[in-house]
Design the sequence.
């Protein structure tokens, strides 16, 4: 469905996200074009409409042509089918979600719930709470 890893389409869509590059520093997050409606319209837009723009904190990343962290197989990010969100507060290896946003305010699980409502799989199940992927078996 997503083609070859590290291909042009894996990096063909983008969404402007709050605090993508730093606290209060919005920027584009790139991912596979097949996910554009889900990420922009179904995950991000409802969060912003509900006033949860401050729920996003430093470090939101999508496409990256790389291996899994600490592994020898390819990361789902190399197909553009995963997004890491609030990476500073939710690092790889952590077993819980820190629901604080860019100002330190608590937003609970607003972000994970938005992704999971759109059939994204949450990486908290393998100690990667920042990670949301749309596919499995890749």
Sequence:
């Amino acid at each position: 469905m997503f083609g070859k890893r590290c291909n042009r389409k894996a990096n063909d869509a983008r969404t402007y996200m709050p605090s993508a590059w730093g606290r209060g520093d919005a920027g584009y997050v790139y991912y596979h074009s097949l996910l554009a409606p889900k990420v922009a319209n179904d995950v991000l837009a409802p969060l912003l409409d509900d006033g949860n723009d401050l729920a996003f904190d430093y470090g939101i990343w999508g496409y990256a042509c790389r291996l899994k962290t600490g592994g020898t197989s390819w990361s789902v990010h190399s197909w553009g089918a995963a997004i890491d969100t609030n990476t500073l507060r939710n690092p790889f290896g952590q077993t819980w979600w820190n629901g604080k946003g860019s100002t330190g305010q608590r937003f609970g699980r607003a972000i994970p719930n938005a992704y999971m409502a759109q059939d994204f799989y949450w990486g908290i199940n393998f100690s990667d709470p920042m990670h949301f992927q749309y596919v499995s078996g890749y």
Notes: The chain has a mean pLDDT of 95. Residues 36-49 form the longest helix (14 residues). Strands lie at 13-22, 25-31, 82-84, 121-122, 131-133. The chain is about 15% helix and 20% strand.
